[in-house]
Amino acid sequence: xxxxxxxxxxxxxxxxxxxxxxxxxxxxxxxxxxxxxxxxxxxxxxxxxxxxxxxxxxxxxxxxxxxxxxxxxxxxxxxxxxxxxxxxxxxxxxxxxxxxxxxxxxxxxxxxxxxxxxxxxxxxxxxxxxxxxxxxxxxxxxxxxxxxxxxxxxxxxxxxxxxxx
Length: 165
Fold this sequence. Notes:
This protein is of the alpha/beta class. It has 2 domains: about 5-40; about 45-160, 3-Layer(aba) Sandwich (Rossmann fold). It is about 40% helix and about 10% strand. The strands form 2 sheets. It has a 3-stranded parallel sheet with strand order 3-4-5, with helices on one face. It has a two-stranded parallel sheet with strand order 1-2. The protein is globular and about 50 Å long.
């Protein structure tokens, strides 16, 4: 729509819509508590060791999350020491799967997209990254079916510690 609100605003709007759509009731305090849960997200247990194993390669996050949300997630998960960059779509004011977002990775790392491995748990994100030119791994924890988008991951794993060395 060529319109941008940061992911915190979008997430709260989606939460409020879902509450209404499902006919639920939620007080403002409950909405705040649910939103604040985004600021204390934990990572899956194998993630720190998987990131450590990938060193000394540069490792980064490229997310639709807002800088505030990403800072909180990196802090609460303890992953900061493993990451060279934490990149938010806020820098380009649009969301994945826009090519402008995927371009942030190669620009920050100074490495061509085709030499980078982009890992995502979202099949639509896998397709967007593949279309941009990344090598792509899909972390398909739920054994979900592939999207019907004509672009496939180079590697499919169930957990991050299954990524090839």
